[in-house]
Design brief:
paralog of FGE (formylglycine-generating enzyme); 9% helix; mainly beta; 4-stranded mixed beta sheet; 5-stranded antiparallel beta sheet; globular; 2 domains; 4 helices
Length: 430
Amino acid sequence: MRIRASLLAVASLSLWGCGGGDSAQVTAPPSAPPPPKAATPTGTNVSQTRPGGPQVATPKAGETPRGPVIPPEALIVGGSQPNYTLVALADAPPHNRFLVNAPPPGYDSRFLTVEAAVLSTPARPATLPDGFVAVETAGYSDDGWPLRIRAQSDGAQLALVPPGPFLRGVDGGPSNAGPMHVIDLDRYYIDVHEVSVGQFQKFRDALRADRKNAPPPAVNSDSPPDHPVRGISYRAALQYAEWAGRSVPTEAEWEKAARGEQGFVYPWGDDRPLWERRRSPGQIDPVGSFRADQSVYGVFDLAGNVREWCQDWYSDVSYQDLAGKAGVAIRNWTGPRTGDKQSRRVVKGGVHGWELWHRDGVSLSESPADVGFRLVLRLSGPAANASTTAPAEEAREPGSPPRGAVPKGGDRPRPSRSPNQKGTSKSPDF
């Protein structure tokens, strides 16, 4: 079942009244003097305020000044006689997603994806991996995937990120975060919130109950259970991911969940943040405390709270290495094969200006007090799950041969050290 509503502006406004039968005459009491008649505002054409709009001619001597000439197709949004009304279309178009060219002032073009809300119930919901259940009240995507699922291991709720390309990085910013480029990802789920103090303690208790080695407690283990866990090493994050049946996100997965397809600067868009209460960089609050810090997929705290581990090895030039692939969407990119001399992994979020393109690296031997993590669930499936709206190449290190190609000399290419991209919880070596 699918429900759609569409509105159409038409150049007329009709008013209807209702009549009644005759009634007995009643002598009306004397009425109060009528109030002064308010001046009726004149109609305003939105195009008058734009550069190049209709101009008012200077009247000649003896002429009556006239207003600007309003073209008949103009949309009058004010006054006593607006030239439009809203009607519901019985036959809505079968699409809910449109690509719109909406250039801002000073730009030649800017393409935006406009998507109308659609509530649908699939005939056959997709099958989730064991250990995960659908949050049915959240609804389903058109192809049957629940928009929200819950992990039975730690109770985390995960949001669906649909397949397709997105814009990663930034032009004109720090050299390690540019240039902007296109990455194409399969669908996946990502934790709506960072892993919390309570969830991490549950994990440690479960390992000790099974007589397994548990990582050290978090630096904020005495904080309320709904605070994001922090002071966690990358190895501890991998250990938690294995126990929970999920994975540490790649940098591309983290950034798409935060910025959406359009590559927004912040989770809420490109405008400056408007917090409902005071918030400063580095401030730690219970997960989900700020409604504005929510991405288009409903994922919280990607701008604020803790910085978060990503799976990729960190390199200052990894984005620049992709610059030669302009116009090609790189499929399921997992970063360079090796890290720098400090053996650093990427960390994202929680920076001074709240920008989501910001990236940094933290050594595997460190457990910074402001670093936590969240996890993803990758879904196995056919290659058709990925978007075909742009040319795509399977993820590999820039300059390396395509999968299955035999380089000169007859040697087979070395197997990639990137993690399994079929959605298992197996973690990369560290």
